[in-house]
């Protein structure tokens, strides 16, 4: 019965979404004609009910997984009764149908959140926004109901399930998709806001202030998701890499780049009433990137254009939805953009000017990633086989990324509207000195072999100093929280770039076949293979190497890399053993043994690699502080306004 | 600066940025797109020697030899039409074994063999590397 109830909840949610579209139209007209708010109240309630029904439907799917109900196809294909509970729950979204249900659930819940908390917007614009959100939901409900129903029964029921891909059985990965989806779909709210504003011709600071918290929240989740995903790939895949420029990674990076640009342009709109049309455009682009990412990952097109052509129902369905929503929003934008009146202007040397530069550079990077991700697919459709890998992206993006770091350093030091170039040069002395010093030291130390990464570290040093400058000469206890947020986020960018550059320039890799008792050196470490022993886990068995690691004459420590064997489904995975030290990580992988009793060891010494994810964490923390600061300020303003009314 | 002008300037800047992005991407594409070959594609044809490419197919059964240094392997990649000998130094991926699909990233040598810097292996039809699945699918449709 649970599966049927889940499906019923899904259909009901879809019905409510349809009602919501109609109500939104009525409520918008009602608001424009000033006839009261009867329909508006109904619209808010409908949105809430739709959100609750979607959450209920997804909750029931999780319940099916927790109970290991083997009469449901999805559970049989992606779960196993002996799996730990956490992975049973994660199994609910570790597959196509379940993840699409999660997608639409987040979409509906985000709509409900807007209906509950949004008090800033004009009633007509809010109604149009909720209508747009429901219209997006309708398409994806239809997709679930007609092309990828997660509640399909299996008759007769299976004895047990096929298990979950062991690579996915990791706490980090279990919560990776939900985090990313919160970010992806959180951007749908910005999209709906933009559509609502275009429909109602209401674009200005109040609209931007209403949109900003949603963009911030979505962006925070995307940042966390991408950072965590990168770390997962790093320790789980055993290749020692932290970013592969793989289409699936790019699918999450593209919305992040667009959201980062949007975050900054929405600030210009909220603070200075500039960049109106551009902000609307970015809001459309950001969610479009989310949908394109979803399409790439979920349509099977990445596996093969040909495989996609064999079973095109789902892919075509999502593609049609993409065409309708993105095309519709862009057409609306094209029709109405002429009506969006010009916001206030500014000089080129100003905070706005720097933010425009930031937006342009982010757009360039986004364009490069977009072309690099989609070009192979287009080529493949024309029967040319090619792949585009890290060399392409690194070469095309590194120079733009360095310019972006420089813009990030300069922007916060400028005044709004206009600033003098001379004053700016004075402020830039300290960051420039830091960058120059870092570059000179590293260049003297390593020569020109790693020019780009060394430049990266130098720019990061400059940005680190520049990012703290906005706090100079301020009373730190009275500095608004969102300023702290900006400072910490920009510092995080510097930390992360420094980590990427340090690992690229200074990592040491050793690959050797070692007998038990033998040793090998990597960087400053001497690694001895003490023994190879079998071990057992809950649903795997493993061969484990006991490595004794010594750095100079300090106390030795142990590392235990494993080769794990899973029976359901039968797979071998490599469990790297990593030790984190203050100045980097030692990363060890156990390979195969050979007839002479030697074992392959693959060892990396990666100086300061940890900074990459520490920086990502700081960026997300900065975003969270900015969000808290803005929301608190808004609540205070609301309270003051309410008190003023009472007086 | 007048409002109209500012909008125009920003628009032009945006266009320039998009142009710059495309230019960057295309120039990098010229030298960085790794074309994908199956052994049948390179038989008796000139192959690029100076570029990173990908070679995909099945690891030929009986061809896998582990070298005495303990960290190098030699094997042959086949697509049923032809075979290419491949040399690789490194830890082979978990799912790398004879008879299953592999994509080798690296370069061709003048003698027609292939030196790989990286191997991507998958274990079954469902997880086949995209290009291999595409190729296999094509040769299947040709057979029918």
UniProtKB/TrEMBL annotation, chain A:
Transmembrane segments: 6-27, 48-66, 100-117, 124-146, 181-201, 213-233, 253-270, 277-297, 317-335, 356-377, 397-416, 428-445, 451-471, 483-502, 608-629
Transmembrane helix as UniProt keyword: yes
Family per similarity comment: Belongs to the CcmF/CycK/Ccl1/NrfE/CcsA family.
Species classification: Bacteria, Pseudomonadati, Pseudomonadota, Alphaproteobacteria, Sphingomonadales
Membrane association type: Multi-pass membrane protein
Pfam family of the protein (one): CcmF_C
Main location: membrane
Keywords on record: Cell inner membrane, Cell membrane, Cytochrome c-type biogenesis, Membrane, Transmembrane, Transmembrane helix
GO function term, MF aspect, one: heme binding
Domain Cytochrome c-type biogenesis protein CcmF C-terminal positions: 319-630
One GO cellular component term: plasma membrane
UniProt source species: Sphingomonas hengshuiensis
A biological process term (GO) from this entry: cytochrome complex assembly
Role, per record: Required for the biogenesis of c-type cytochromes. Possible subunit of a heme lyase.
NCBIfam families: nrfE, PRK10369.1
Superkingdom, taxonomy of origin: Bacteria
Domain Cytochrome c assembly protein residues, every copy: 93-299
Places the protein is found: Cell inner membrane
Protein name as annotated: Cytochrome C biogenesis protein CcmF
TrEMBL record, chain B:
Keyword Protease: no
Protein localization: Cell membrane; Membrane
Ligand binding (heme): 123, 127
UniProt keyword terms in alphabetical order: Cell membrane, Cytochrome c-type biogenesis, Heme, Iron, Membrane, Metal-binding, Signal, Signal-anchor, Transmembrane, Transmembrane helix
Keyword Metal-binding: yes
Superkingdom of origin: Bacteria
Gene Ontology cellular component annotations, sorted alphabetically: plasma membrane
Signal peptide: 1-27
GO MF annotation list: heme binding; metal ion binding
Function field: Heme chaperone required for the biogenesis of c-type cytochromes. Transiently binds heme delivered by CcmC and transfers the heme to apo-cytochromes in a process facilitated by CcmF and CcmH.
NCBIfam families found in the cross-reference section: PRK13254.1-1, PRK13254.1-5
Family to which the UniProt record says this protein belongs: Belongs to the CcmE/CycJ family.
Protein name, UniProt field: Cytochrome c-type biogenesis protein CcmE
Gene from which this protein is expressed: ccmE
């Amino acid at each position: 019965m649970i599966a049927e109830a889940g499906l019923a909840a899904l259909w009901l949610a879809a019905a409510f979404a349809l009602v919501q579209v109609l109500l939104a139209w009525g409520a918008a007209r009602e608001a424009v004609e000033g006839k009261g708010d009867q329909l508006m109240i109904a619209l808010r309630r409908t949105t809430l009910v739709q959100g609750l029904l979607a959450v209920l439907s997804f909750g029931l799917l999780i319940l099916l997984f927790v109970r290991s109900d083997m009469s449901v196809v999805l559970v049989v294909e992606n779960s196993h009764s002996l799996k730990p509970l956490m992975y049973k729950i994660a199994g609910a979204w570790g597959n196509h149908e379940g993840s699409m249900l999660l997608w639409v659930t987040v979409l509906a819940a985000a709509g409900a959140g807007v209906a509950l908390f949004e008090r800033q917007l004009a009633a007509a614009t809010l109604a149009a926004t909720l209508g747009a959100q429901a219209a997006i939901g309708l398409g994806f409900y239809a997709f679930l109901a007609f092309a990828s129903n997660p509640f399909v029964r299996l008759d007769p029921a299976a004895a047990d399930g096929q298990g979950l891909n062991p690579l996915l059985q990791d706490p980090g990965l279990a919560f990776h998709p939900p985090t990313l989806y919160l970010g992806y779909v959180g951007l749908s709210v910005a999209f709906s806001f933009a559509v609502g504003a275009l429909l109602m011709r209401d674009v200005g600071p109040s609209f931007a202030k209403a949109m900003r918290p949603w963009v911030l929240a979505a962006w925070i989740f995307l940042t966390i998701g991408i950072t965590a995903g990168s770390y997962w790939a790093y320790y789980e895949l055993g290749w020692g890499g932290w970013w592969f420029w793989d289409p699936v990674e790019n699918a999450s990076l593209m919305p992040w780049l667009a959201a980062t640009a949007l975050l900054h342009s929405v600030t210009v709109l909220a603070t200075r009433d500039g960049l109106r049309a551009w902000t609307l455009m970015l809001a459309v682009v950001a969610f479009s990137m989310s949908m394109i990412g979803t399409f790439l990952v979920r349509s099977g097109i990445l596996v093969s254009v040909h495989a996609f052509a064999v079973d095109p129902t789902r892919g075509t369905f999502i593609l049609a939805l993409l065409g309708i929503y993105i095309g519709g929003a862009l057409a609306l934008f094209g029709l109405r953009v002429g009506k969006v009146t010009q916001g206030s202007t500014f000089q080129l040397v100003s905070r706005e000017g720097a933010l425009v530069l930031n937006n342009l550079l982010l757009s360039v990077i986004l364009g490069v990633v977009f072309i690099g991700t989609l070009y192979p697919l287009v080529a493949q459709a024309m029967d040319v086989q090619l792949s585009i890998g890290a060399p392409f992206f690194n070469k095309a993006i590194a120079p733009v990324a360095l310019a972006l770091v420089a813009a990030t350093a300069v922007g916060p030091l400028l005044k709004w509207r206009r600033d003098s170039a001379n004053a700016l040069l004075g402020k830039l002395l300290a960051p420039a000195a830091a960058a120059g010093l870092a570059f000179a030291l590293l260049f003297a130390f390593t020569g020109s072999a790693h020019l780009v990464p060394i430049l990266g570290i130098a720019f990061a040093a400059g940005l680190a100093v520049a990012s703290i400058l906005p706090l100079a000469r301020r009373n730190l206890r009275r500095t608004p929280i969102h300023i702290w947020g900006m400072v910490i986020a920009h510092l995080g960018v510097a930390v992360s770039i420094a980590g990427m550059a340090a690992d690229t320039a200074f990592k040491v890799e050793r690959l050797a076949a070692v007998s038990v008792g033998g040793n090998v050196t990597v960087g400053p470490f001497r690694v001895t293979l003490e023994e190879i022993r079998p071990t057992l886990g809950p649903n795997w068995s493993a061969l484990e190497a006991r490595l004794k690691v010594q750095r100079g004459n300090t106390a030795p420590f142990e590392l235990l890399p494993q080769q794990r064997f899973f029976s359901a489904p039968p797979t071998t995975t490599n469990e790297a053993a990593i030790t984190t030290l203050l100045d980097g990580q030692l990363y060890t992988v156990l390979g195969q043994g050979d007839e002479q009793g030697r074992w392959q060891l693959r060892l990396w010494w990666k100086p300061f690699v940890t900074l990459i994810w520490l920086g990502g964490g700081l960026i997300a923390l900065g975003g969270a502080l900015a969000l808290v600061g803005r929301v608190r300020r808004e609540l205070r303003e609301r309270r003051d306004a309410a008190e003023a009314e009472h007086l | 600066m007048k409002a109209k002008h500012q909008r125009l300037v920003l628009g032009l800047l945006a266009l320039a940025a998009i142009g710059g992005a495309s230019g960057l991407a295309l120039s990098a594409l010229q030298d960085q797109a790794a074309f994908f070959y199956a052994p049948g594609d390179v038989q008796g044809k000139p192959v690029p020697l100076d570029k990173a490419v990908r070679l995909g197919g099945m690891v030929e059964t009986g061809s896998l030899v582990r070298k005495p240094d303990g960290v190098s392997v030699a094997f042959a990649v086949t697509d049923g039409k032809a075979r290419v000998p491949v040399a690789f130094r490194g830890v082979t991926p978990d799912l790398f074994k004879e008879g299953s699909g592999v994509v080798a990233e690296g370069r061709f040598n003048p003698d027609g063999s292939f030196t790989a810097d990286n191997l991507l292996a998958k274990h079954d039809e469902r997880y086949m590397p995209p290009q291999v699945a595409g190729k296999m699918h094509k040769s299947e449709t040709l057979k029918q």
